[in-house]
Design goal:
By secondary structure, the chain is α/β, with parallel strands linked by helices. The protein has 11 helices and 9 strands. It has 2 domains: about 60 residues; about 200 residues, Vaccinia Virus protein VP39 (Rossmann fold). The strands form 2 sheets. Strands 5-4-3-6-7-9-8 form a 7-stranded mixed β-sheet, with helices on both faces. The longest helix has 19 residues. It is elongated. It comes from Metarhizobium album. Its EC number is 2.1.1.297.
Length: about 290
């Protein structure tokens, strides 16, 4: 037996105590999640399998993972994957870790996507700044009549998104392209969706270490005022949007008015807005103003 114990229950208790002492929130939940993920166990199995003896290799892996978390590396980064909207998504160095609030963007987009499919029989999606592929892949999984093009400037992100498409069984309706926003894009799309970088450059240093030190800067930094990506999307989206199509974007908690203004200046109407689980503005959906 090591100083940290030999059983699963002892290791969970050790991780929980050390996380709590370090001031990490949700220490008990994270301890179970981390050990369960490392050992391939469900949450129930972690609860009921406390007497399970860990082998030497398992103990070493758990010890290393605990130290990584104490250095503020997120649990899902340590595990290398994360669940999102029912999908299992691999993470990589240049991809943003998808978070529950982004599921609201998927939910709102799905409403319009299904309506378009009901009218046209099919739909084309453009996912700008694809990262892990979370948004586009979730839409494809929920809507078999859709196909998606995912774009990003990062080759690492594109490879990760394509791997996730295969992992989740939608690769035949998914493809990727290296593009700086619309620079390399051709054609028309029924849905243009994006969770772009929207943090003002000057406040990135104030973010939690889990975000600041482990999410890629390119996926966070939205420029001086946090709006650079929205300017780029609003400027050109109309040229790539099919008739009666929509543009859906995730935003920062204080950006509803400013982002709406950018899109209305380019001939769009705000069709819908939605808040996240913390009651902050999080999603905006725009349609073309055909009267202009």
């Amino acid at each position: 037996m090591t100083a940290n114990g030999a059983t699963l229950g002892e290791w969970v208790a050790t991780a929980r105590a050390r996380f709590s002492a370090a001031g990490l929130p949700d220490a008990a939940i994270e301890a179970r999640l981390l050990l369960g993920g490392l050992l391939g166990l469900s949450n129930t199995e972690v609860f009921t399998g406390g007497d399970r003896l860990l082998g030497e290799a398992e103990r070493q892996a758990v010890a290393v993972a605990i130290e990584r978390r104490l250095k503020r590396e997120p649990v899902h980064r340590i595990l290398g994957h994360r669940e999102f909207f029912g999908l299992d998504l691999r993470l990589s160095r240049e991809t943003l870790e998808p978070r529950p609030d982004t599921e609201i963007l998927v939910e709102k987009t799905l409403f319009y996507l299904r309506r378009i499919v009901a009218e046209k029989g099919r739909a084309r999606i453009l996912d700008l700044g694809v990262g892990t592929g979370a948004i586009g892949l979730a839409l494809l999984k929920e809507c078999p009549q859709a196909e998606c093009l995912g774009s990003d400037v990062s080759e690492d992100a594109l490879a990760t998104a394509m791997a996730n498409a295969h992992l989740n069984g939608v690769a035949e309706r998914y493809c990727t392209i290296r593009s700086d926003w619309f620079a390399g894009i051709d054609g028309k799309f029924d849905v243009i969706v994006s969770n772009p970088p929207y943090i003002a450059s000057s406040v990135i240093h104030e973010l939690d270490p889990e975000v600041r030190d482990f999410d890629p800067l390119a996926a966070l930094d939205g420029g001086k005022d946090g709006l650079d990506a929205y300017r780029a999307i609003a400027a050109d989206a109309g040229s790539f949007l099919a008739l009666d199509g929509i543009v859906a974007v995730e935003i920062g908690f204080d950006q509803k008015q400013s982002v709406t203004a950018l899109f209305t200046q380019k001939g769009f109407l705000l069709a819908e807005s939605a808040q996240d689980y913390g009651h902050n503005d999080r999603v905006l959906v725009f349609a073309c103003n055909n009267t202009k």
